[in-house]
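Bit of a strange request maybe. I'm writing a small parser for structure token strings and I need a real example to test against, not something I typed by hand. Could someone generate the tokens for this chain?
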Amino acid sequence: MVKRAEPDAKRESLMASRTLNPHPETVTAQVAGPDFFDARDLVQVKYEMVRRVQVDGMPVTRAAAAFGLSRQTLYTAQAVLAGQGLAGLVPGKPGPKQGHKLTEAVIDHLEELRAADPDSSAGDLAAAVEQRFGVRVHPRSVQRALAVRRARQEAPKSR
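Reply from user aminoacidic:
Good idea to test on real output. This should exercise your parser:
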């Protein structure tokens, strides 16, 4: 009979917040208060690593090795802590933050094409963008971009 492992709520929480240390076994540093420190928590690991250097005077190379991270990670964490505080160590959402293919020039062109032929499909418009700008976009992205532009143009009129 195979016994299932109990779900680990903290691990699940760390995974959900993208702060799970992928290699907690590399953390060899002895930290006071072992009930508090969790090597699986990447934010804690980075904070404690920077604290060891800045407060305890531990050499950078030794601190990075003891916490299983690179010196560059330590330097980056120092800068983030100085500029943004502890919250800066929590990673943001991965991926692009805004569209990078459907620029204003591309959307202007799409509007011109749509004005010239209101019956043109999103697929035809996407093909025209690829032909003119060399950028492949999904037809649904074309529809969304045009809808957002239309909503922005209509918003001041409704006030």
